[in-house]
Amino acid sequence: MSLPGKPLRVPRAAKQLHCRDTCDFYDLPDSPHRIPSSFMTGNVLARRGGVASTRLIICVALCVGIIGCGKSSDPNPPRVRVTGKITLDDQPAPAGTIVFVPVAVGQLQSQGIVQDDGTFVIEGENGPSPGDYKVEIVCAKKTGRRVQSMSSTDGTGMIDERVPVIPAKYNTATTLKQTITSGENSLSFQLHSAK
């Protein structure tokens, strides 16, 4: 038996039963789930003779065909362009981020920047893949104060102070859901600050 997390090799004696020597599944990007390669005990089966053994080999071949060589998760599913606008209490949301968190294995997480007018654009090469997602939105508005920060880019060592304004039900405890379809997606999110 292979160690946990290590894919097992399909014996070459059983090569005729497979679409290739090893029917691989994949590590999924941005996902805690790992799907190891399929496995079988082909050498043991190959050494057995008789009708019963032949039937067993055919049965294993069918199982491997379904589990190992069937529709596995695509390691590079297509990404799509996503644009949209976010409002908070019927006003454009301030600057922040929007994250599309996959609901199912095999989809790709994606994140975009929300501008101060509430709009966002995620180009296709960085967009989510088609499927269902949870949506997390975090935005922060300016307080009117300037504070010291190492991230200052204007040479003053100061930046605009911002405070979060989006309730947890739209980010850390999000209830937002969105289905992404193939082709460009234009979305709209109407958020409310009332709990």
Question: Which features would summarize this protein structure in a list?
Answer:
9 strands, 195 residues, five-stranded antiparallel beta sheet, Immunoglobulin-like, mainly beta, 2 helices, 12% helix, 2 domains, globular, four-stranded mixed beta sheet
Secondary-structure map:
Blueprint: H1 42-46, H2 50-67, E1 82-88, E2 91-92, E3 96-102, E4 110-114, E5 119-122, E6 131-148, E7 158-164, E8 177-180, E9 185-191
Parallel strand pairs: 1-9
Antiparallel strand pairs: 1-2, 1-5, 3-4, 3-6, 6-7, 6-8
Describe what is shown at a glance.
With 195 residues, the protein is mainly β. The protein is built from 2 helices and 9 strands, in the order H-H-E-E-E-E-E-E-E-E-E. The model is unreliable at 6-49 and 56-72 (pLDDT under 50).
